Amino acid sequence: MERILVIDDEASIRKALQIGLASEDFEIDSASDGASGIQMGQRKSYDILIADLCLPDMTGLDVIKEIKSSSPAIIPIVITGKGSMQSSLEAIRLEVSDYLEKPLSLTSVKASIARGLERRSIKRTEDRPPPSPGGTADGLTGLPERSQFMGRLKQAITERARDRDRSLALLLLDIDSFKGVNDRYGHHVGDRVLIELAARLKTDGKQAGMTARLDGDTFAILLEDPPSDDQVVAAARKWQRAAEQPMVVDGITVSVQVSIGLVIKRHFFNSTDDLLRDAEMALEHGKERGGGRVQVFDAHMLEQAVAALQFENQLRLGIQKAEFTLHYQPIIQTCDQTLSGFEALIRWNHPERGLLPPSEFIPKAEEIGIINQVGQWVLHEAGRQLKEWQTHIAGFEKIVLNVNIAGCHFLQPGFTDDLQTILAENNLEPANLKLELTESVLMDDSERAIEIIKAIKTIGVQLAVDDFGTGYSAFSYLQQLPLDELKIGECFVQKLGTSTECYEIVKTIVKLSKKLGLKVVAEGVENESQLDKIRKLDIDLVQGFFFSRPVENEAVPEVVRRFRQPRLI
Ligand code: C2E
Ligand code: MG
Ligand code: MG
Questions:
Q1: What is the per-residue pLDDT across 379-397, written as a single tens digit (0 to 9) for each?
Q2: 3-state secondary structure of 3
């Protein structure tokens, strides 16, 4: 059973968490001020610490610092008032697992705890050093290990706190995808690579400092009183080149790519943890950009990290506060230009930035694992809206509403149950709903995907493949699936006039689709000449700015009116 310590001066919050979390099988203690919270945290060991940022006697961050020094593995979560940048910045430095903005909801607290626990278990697995003959890092490479290095770093910082003219540089070096080396050549070769690297990374004696192996494939180099920033960067590049020279291990030539994160400090110093965090942040920054780089830390990175964290939090809150909205783009019959259906397209009404398109938040929602919640909202809202239109707009019963479904949402257990509930709640004909899936969903995890697709088909809901042609699905594969429609992405449509190759590809796609009994939609039609080509290609349906941009729900009756009369060409 996980133990949680809650420190908040508001009795109502303490009580709500106590009751709400106890039912989840957590053991909860609470304190109303910083001093008693610290005492409790030092007397007993807790897994999670939830602390208000503003306590009557001290700040929540001071409390966390204090408790972390005796229980380094504790997962700190802070509760803040409306977004304060400076404290979020501090929070990141302290490796606060998460921060929650007031007013709190129990769901977000629980989610935050779950994330913290998950991260801790991942970190524990990662922190385990690879198996090596000597057991400890020290044993393998002969270099000083983490605790020794941290001691030296601490001493160096203390000296520089007294003498402000002195400086230091901390360099972290890490192999890009060391796992690949181990997987490909075996751990024995991996170990030998680390030994060889250790030898290449030693400081040359002219320069005061220390090289250590922190863990796994991460090495740290401390340079005391380096002459200039440029020289530190030059030295880092030299080490990088040295590390990347091919090495021969057991007759095999192994080359690795390494990333270096670098922090240079002059005149003011933070704690060892701060320095290490900054170097790690620089290292991560470089790795995210493809690796193989020497990346010097700058405060901008911290701001970016804070901004990213804030954005994530806003997105999570956005779901709770229902800040999303759907816009609807008509899908038109090519033959007579009457309305066939609408595609629902999500937008987020961001509290500061206004209406955001899906490209700005859907990938993030996928990354942080909340795309299912977003998708559920979309399905519910689409179902509700469709019913409303059917009730109020004459002739709407024939209109089909397309809804985009993210891959992982679709593969989620209970997806088809959810779908059935939405149909039942709104008393909808299943055939009036069409789900758009991307090719990659159909290709990944295909057996499970086929199973769900078949279940959806049994329910009677229609299925479309979105952005066809951008992925790699083979027609022979699509043939096995009970699909209704294939949507050709705008990149193809836009090249129809300029590339004969593209034209031929689309022609083949249309021909094969007809054979399989699939309808074809051309997306992104922007002008008359594209429409002409589409007509010649005998494509059934069209969608694009030429007919209408996606519109708000209020504008839908007007769109229905506009496309009511057949226009024969
Ligand atoms: P998509 O499903 O292929 O949607 C078509 C996109 O093309 C829409 O962008 C639409 O506004 C845009 N478009 C329509 N006509 C034209 C045109 O004539 N020219 C050009 N250049 N573009 C046109 P939007 O709304 O920004 O959506 C982008 C993508 O985000 C969608 O691509 C879809 O993959 C995803 N998406 C949208 N709504 C949802 C949702 O509710 N859930 C999920 N999981 N994804 C969504
Ligand atoms: Mg779509
Ligand atoms: Mg599309």
A1: 999 999 999 999 999 999 9
A2: strand
Task: From residue 401, give the alpha-carbon distance in Å to each of 306, 380, 418, 432, 551.
Answer: 39, 12, 17, 6, 14
CB 226 less than 6 A from any atom of ligand 1: no
Distance 484 CA to ligand 3 centre (A): 15
Interval 503-520: pLDDT, tens: 988 998 899 899 889 999
For 219-249, the pLDDT digits (tens) are 999 999 998 999 999 999 999 999 999 999 8
CA 138 to the chain's CA centroid: 35
Domains in the chain with CATH codes? 3-127 (3.40.50.2300), 135-297 (3.30.70.270), 322-562 (3.20.20.450)
**CA distance readout (Å), 100 to 81, 107, 301:** 9, 11, 22
Strand ranges inside 69-138, DSSP E: 75-80, 98-101
Look up the pTM and report it.
0.69
Non-local CB neighbours of 116 within 8 Å, separated by 6+ positions? 48, 75, 77, 97, 98
CB distance 467 to ligand 1 below 6 Å: yes
CA angle 132/135/138 to nearest 5° reads 100
Q: How far apart are CA 118 and CA 385, in angstroms?
A: 37
